[in-house]
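Supplementary notes for students who missed Thursday's class. We covered one full example, reproduced here. Read the sequence, then the structure, then the short commentary at the end.
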Amino acid sequence: MSVLAFSHLAAWSFGSLPHSAANDAARIEAAARGTAVAMVATAIAPAGPSGAIASNAGLGVSGAASTSSLPTTIDIAWLPDTVQVWEERLVAAGARWRVDPALLAIVMLVESGGNPAARSPAGAVGLMQVMPATAGDIARLRGLAALSSRQLVDPETNIEFGAWYLARQLASFGSADDPDWQRSVELAAVAYNGGPGSAASWQRGGYVPAEARRYRVWVGGMWSERALPTSPTYARWLDAGGAYLVDRARSVLDPANGGTTLASG
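Structure (token representation):
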């Protein structure tokens, strides 16, 4: 999550780019750093299309919407148990911030595989891989006290902050005339992973970091296949390294290893 949150699957650095591309990447990162908080702040007054929730399964942020239009379950047949076990918390966060819980589940899957102890080399933590700096910005914008590292790792808090941030990206980049919100989801995914600057650059046909492009493919593909009995995109993600995330999550949650979530879920 955020411009500095590179996932466990990423193998990308600006140093590997041609000089001109590296300069573009540096400019985008700098722009994203400077504009992320401003874009999130303006999205607090929802910028999403009016009525988008009722017509698009709750993906937008609309002042006219109600939580009654949102799904109350996550019906994804191929979703692993390590993510499905968080259904109640995902549904609650989705209702609170008016985001389809299926999309929250897909983002959680790609970010951590459902592992509450996940920590990226860049410092992103928890189920939704929230960057501490981004969490600090969100807390200030919401008038909340600063979070400790331990609080940020807490599953409920981590899901809450991830859902809030994703809702803001959908509000900023969603479009009412987007069938099934496919492009809106892909833009929000780019913003969630690479920062709002990356999503804005993609809209203009500009440079987007490779990891954010991959992230768009994973999240967008799984979103489009969420109603199918199997997901080819999920299968490819597993083969590309996602299986490690899911296996690690299962190990952390396994009661035999001191976990309790899978047993109680």
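Commentary. The CA atoms of residues 47 and 172 lie 6 Å apart. DSSP finds 13 helices and no strands in the chain. If anything here is unclear, bring it to office hours.
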